[in-house]
Each structure stands twice: as C-alpha cells, then as structure tokens.
Amino acid sequence: MLRNRTLLAVSLVVCAAYTGIGMIGPVRVLYAQSRGASLTVIGTMSSAYLISNFLFQYPSGWLADRFGRKPMMLISLVAQAALSLAYLFITDPILFVVLRFAEGIAAAAVVPSARALVADSVPPEQRGQAYGIFGAFFNTGFLLGPALGGLLASTGYATSFIGAVIFRLLAAVIVITMIHVRPRSGSSSAGQAVRIPFRRLFTLPLIAAYILVFGDWLYVGFDITLVPLWMHDHLGASVAIIGFSYMAWSIPNVILTPFTGRVADRVRRSLLVLIFGLAQVPLYIVYGLANTFMIILVLFVVHGIVYSMVQPAVDAHLAASSGAEARGRVQGMYYAFGLFGGFFGSNGFSLLYGVNFRLPLFAIGTAFGLCVLIGATLMRVSENRGLVAGPGKQYEDLEQRIPGSLAEEVNIGFREDG
CA 305, CA 314: separation in Å to the nearest integer? Predict the structure, then answer.
C-alpha cells in the first residue's frame, strides 16, 4: 500500500505537520497562563480557534475542489508556521485569542485536503487499510510532537514554538517535492468546481459520519482547553508527563491502525463503530474518577487500542459516501461538524469544569455514547439499503444502482496511482 506515492507523501505531510501541532499542544495553555491569561481567556482562545476553523472548513473544501488539494495544503502549512512564530512576540493575553482565530483559518485546509487525496488515489475496496496507514502517520505526529514539546518546554516555552515552525515548514517541503497530482479523466478541470446540490452533503450515510465526528470531538474541545490544566493542577503531572501522556495514547494507534484498517475493509464498519465506540464510554467515566496521572497514562494506552478500531472504519465509510467531484467539500463539512463538537466541548465543559473538574469527563462519556448509538445505527441502515459501498459488497453492482457521484468515484477515483 505504501507503494502508492500519493498515500505515502500525504501521510508524511500530516506526520510532520501534526508533530509541529503536537509540540505546542501541551504548552500553549500553560504558556498563555504564564503571560497572564485567565481561565476565561484560555477558554476563549480555544473557542476562537474552533469557530474560525469551523467557519472555514467548507470554503477550504470548496477551494480544494476548485483549485486543487496541493495548493491549499501548501498555503495552510506556511501560514501555520508563521503564526506559530508569532506567539513569541505576544505579551497581551487578549492577542492570544486573535492569534488562535487566525490559526483556525490557516489550519482549515490541511486534513480535509489530505484525506480527500487519500480517497482520490486509493481503490474503494482498500480505503480502510489506506486510512489505517494514514492514521498511523497522523498519530505518529501526535506521538512525537507532545513528547518533544514537553521536553523542549523544560528549557523554555519558546523552543517548543520554534520546533513547531520547523516541522510545519518541513511538511510544506514534502508537499512541494513529493505530491504530484494528475488530473482525473471525467472530473472537473483545474480552476472549475462541479456545482452540486447542497443536499448531496447531507445524505443518510454522511449524516451518520457527521454525528460520529461531533461526538468524537467533544473530548478534543476539552483536550485543547483544559486537559493540561486538569492533569497539572488536579493530578500532579509535570509538563513533560503531560507530553508523554499523548504518547501513551498515540503508540497503540501507530502500531495498530494499519491492521485495523484491513479489518474495516472486511467486516461491517457499523459493527466496528458500535462495539468499539461504546467500549470507550467507561474509560471516560474512569478518567473522571481518577486521582493520579499514573492511572490516566495506563488508560490512555487502552483507549488508544480501542480507538484504533473505530477511526479507519469511519474514514472508509465517509470516503465511500462521497463522490470524487465533491470530496473536498464533504471532508470540509465532516470536519466542520467535528469542530462544532469541539466548540461545544470547549465551552460547555469549561462551565462544568468550574463547578467540579470531574464533571466534564462524565458528560463526555454520556454524550459520546449517544452519538455512537445514533451514528452506528444510521451507518447500519445505510449499509442495509445499499446507500454506501462496504465490505462484502460488489462495487460494480452498487454502481449500477446508484448513478452520479458514487459511480464516478468507483470508476475514476483511484486512477491516479493505480
């Protein structure tokens, strides 16, 4: 699978980019706090990022469909590098909010464009495995980034931000030198996006994916806002330990997702999502009950193992539910729903955190479980109705029954790399 040049290049890009993002993750909140930012300002920083990222997901997807995935990724990475450097020159806490808003805009194009490129270049029946490999590289970035950032921060916060700049620029170099996109026959030409009805972005299979990513990102909102404070202030973890906690979660993903992606190509994806999605609910409950960071480190490993069974299945389902001519927009809409979940988690759980630091984790477990139940059920209905190609289905039969975008996807979506 890694002989697919586009898949390898895109995976390396997200690995380098998210190493840079991860390097700042454990220290950004503490850095802002050291510059006088209150809990309110810290929460507003997260909200500003999530709002701007949410607002620019669909426009970024539209631009990626119109002008190409590669240019959007390149612009985004260079802008993120410049904004990471800007942190070192800010002393007014309010300006951190402005900077986070700008970061949200800059970050909107990378992952949707990268995921669309994966779907463009891989046959439908192998997308679970492809997204498993993509996820392994993605989580390698989260494995390396927080650990490096936490260690560098022990010598001063500035070194973490400088490291983030370097890795974003490295990702931009990979985009320039390794990603060579060929036009697909039968698809829109460069500079022209196919006009599609907006309702095509809200088919039943896509709604299932949107609900799942909304629930998944509830914790992401809590993570970028409060996890460093929770672990540092209530569990006694140092900055370095907080960085290593991200490693504990990422290592199982790096090791397992290439294999769990193969599983997602062979069994019902809705079943994987239901079983291993609900298996995460008790973990959130135990997080809320924990009194020491050592328990969290162990459970993060378990959580990483369980989560590795879910994400490739959801990714493959999403790719199979979208046509090649609108894939950037679908990916953008998918991440917009995720960011909405993150915004809800950041703000709603900040209020709960002010009452008791355990309450947000209990609430996340409950809300996430409901989203898994609803989303997996809609996935199963979509599979039973033949609305989405899945393991055990004949893509040729599906093409005969579903005209338009999905047929195009099956025929031309993977020709670029054969």
Answer: 16
* CA 141/CA 23 separation, integer angstroms: 9
Read off the pLDDT of residues 272-293 as tens digits, 9 standing for 90 and up. 999 999 999 999 999 999 998 8
At residue 237, φ and ψ (nearest 5 deg) are -85, 140
Tell me how many helices (H) and strands (E) the chain has.
17, 0
pLDDT in the model for residue 402? 42
**Burial grade of 407 (CB within 10 A; 0-12, 13-18, 19 or more):** middle
Q: Is the dihedral of CA 367, 116, 11, 176 positive or negative?
A: negative
d(CA 297, CA 360): 19
At residue 37's C-alpha, the angle toward residues 34 and 42, to 5°, is: 115
Contact status, residue 263 vs residue 272, Cβ threshold 8 Å: yes
What is the pLDDT averaged over residues 356-366?
93
In which band, very low, low, confident or very high, does the pLDDT at 207 lie, cut at 50, 70 and 90? very high
Q: How far is CA 403 from CA 116, 281, 323, 399, 411, in A?
A: 21, 39, 11, 7, 12
225 conformational bin, left if phi > 0, alpha if psi -120 to 50, beta if neither: alpha
What pLDDT does residue 353 have?
Answer: 86
Q: What is the mean pLDDT of residues 193-222?
A: 86
Query: Across 83-212, where does the E strand assignment appear?
Result: none
Closest CA to 324 of 194, 134, 178: 194
Tokens of 133: 């490999």
Residues 6+ apart with CB under 8 A from 400: none
For residue 231, give both structure tokens.
């672990």
* Burial letters 335-374, b for 16+ CB under 10 A, else e: bbbbbbbbbbbbbbbbebbeeebbebbbbbbebbbebbeb
Confidence of residue 332 (pLDDT cuts 50, 70, 90): confident
- Fold of the domain spanning 5-179+198-412: Growth Hormone; Chain: A; (1.20.1250)
What is d(CA 43, CA 282) in angstroms, rounded to the nearest whole number?
Answer: 26
Residue carrying the six token digits 């709604």? 207
Comparing CA positions, the residue from 22, 19, 27, 21 lying closest to residue 239 is 27
Domain range list for the chain: 5-179+198-412
